[in-house]
Amino acid sequence: MELQVLTEMLFGNRIRDKVANSTLISLPEWYMLGLIAYYSKDWDFEIENEIKDAVLSGKFEDFNHMEGKDAEIVGFSIWHYIEKVHGKEAIPNIVHLTRVSKSADSGFLFALGMSFYDFSYDWIEFYNKKFIEDEKNRNKIDNKKSILQLTKWDSIKFIYTTQKHKSIKEF
């Protein structure tokens, strides 16, 4: 269902429009696969982890040439970013303006007011900041757990020692 609606949004619903537009619009694979994933799947921790791994490893650096599952993941992250930063209503605007201008770059430029190059920089920075901050917070939590575990172990050892020697020691 989603694929049919998206295809009609991009290429029209009449046969003549589909033929004319499909030969004139050349979209990167991430555009359609990501858009389909964005509309058909919910954002969850598995998708976020896949995106996180790709961003932190630098896998998204040459995203325009990705294919298959990688293109789907990068596209999903792009459309999700647009929703978070520019609002959900920006997505159909981009799709419509891509169709009218017959160019994804122009669709982004007209809908968001920035070149796709600038947009892609902002998009990757958004995820870099998010995931690097997540990693820092996770490390802080891990360190606090280690300190807490060490403190508990020392307390247990201290209590055992004091009970064994039948003496009470103050902290």
Describe the SSE topology.
Elements: H1 2-11, H2 15-24, H3 29-40, H4 45-57, H5 68-86, H6 90-101, H7 104-112, H8 116-164
Question: Care to describe what's here?
Answer:
There is one protein chain. This protein has 171 residues and is an all-alpha fold. It is 78% helix and 0% strand. About 11% of the residues have low confidence. It has one domain. The chain has 8 helices and no strands.
User: Which blocks of ≥5 consecutive residues have pLDDT under 50?
Assistant: 18-23, 153-164
Count of domain modules = 1
Helix/strand structural class: mainly alpha
Q: Roughly how many Å apart are the termini?
A: 68 Å
Q: Tell me about the biggest sheet? A: none
- Helicity, in percent? over 70%
User: Secondary-structure element sequence?
Assistant: HHHHHHHH
Structure, briefly:
With 171 residues, this protein is an all-alpha fold. It has 8 helices and no strands.
Question: Which terms summarize this structure?
Answer:
171 residues, mainly alpha, globular
